[in-house]
């Protein structure tokens, strides 16, 4: 094969596996070779499962040779965020407290991927307990951005973002409570989709904040995100937030035709205080979409002004409730940043939490009104470019601002409302990718995917990927 196998997307690799032009063993070996080559520098993996992956790949190869091809994920190597349960395997949740935790069941998404014949190459690094957006993990080491090893990959699914970008997995899954799929997708130049709340079961995923958590795909292409969405979606009685809403064939619905589509932008919130190169890349993409026949319309979403308060209060309160017992018993076993947030969450009055839920209700109503007039909303994913590892400030137009204050400003509303939201790259600035966010109406993931598909076809990244020639494991 002329093309580097590990650089393939699912959409490229699947037909070759099906037609026996490449084997699952070849593909898995290519991915594992990249892990060996790059991961001591990038640190995307907490655990590499080489032997079991090669055995699974050999089994998949035998199945396919005997005519038992299961579908487009059969023989595809994937590593997942180390927050999803694998039966009888260690799942650390990126923490010291759970470093030896062995679940007695598979997460629903893991079970579905196993049934499809996915090859698991290991567990990926993450922000401790998913409670942060840097993936600077005190227990397993900082994960580095493949575009620039001095920068963060975003978080909390930073290992997933970095591994997909560096071709150390063909695709991955992340979790998203305030932006934890979309932030690393933006930072690492890949596609990250947070589906509608309730669309993909969260059974067997360690929670961060019950009412805000989502699981979703992190991939090289929009097609791959659509494929994983249609594979993993569906009602699950084991997840009390799961909804019984019809699942569509999202890959078949993909279309780059935007003629007659209306794309909304909200200037007052989503384009306020954005670093100039980020804003320019997103607005340039909007101009290109207009040329494709899309109509751009300004929308008002008044309650967005209160969304940062509502997201912060909700996430810190629910996270502190989940970790309350361990915070009392063994506070020293949390990383400093996570312990600070958990202690802060213990101080939030019930009045604030309940007011935040009223804001959520109104915000959902505002978005529903906006989506009566537009098919999708576009904004930057992040208002800044990824900062250096260890830097708690970000640069926005020459001003130093708090990373924590700014990082979920544009992603948080998607969690509060539960609406589908996707980040995909729309350009490069200072050698780092810029992410564009698309939001859509509840359970209309196809709206979001189609706009993303059209943007992807514009080739705004011009085929650029991280230059890993100098990143060789020692």
From TrEMBL:
GO terms for molecular function: catalytic activity. Residues 26-449 form the Amidase domain. It comes from the Bacteria. Belongs to the amidase family. PANTHER family: GLUTAMYL-TRNA(GLN) AMIDOTRANSFERASE SUBUNIT A, MITOCHONDRIAL (PTHR11895:SF7), TRANSAMIDASE (PTHR11895). This is Amidase family protein.
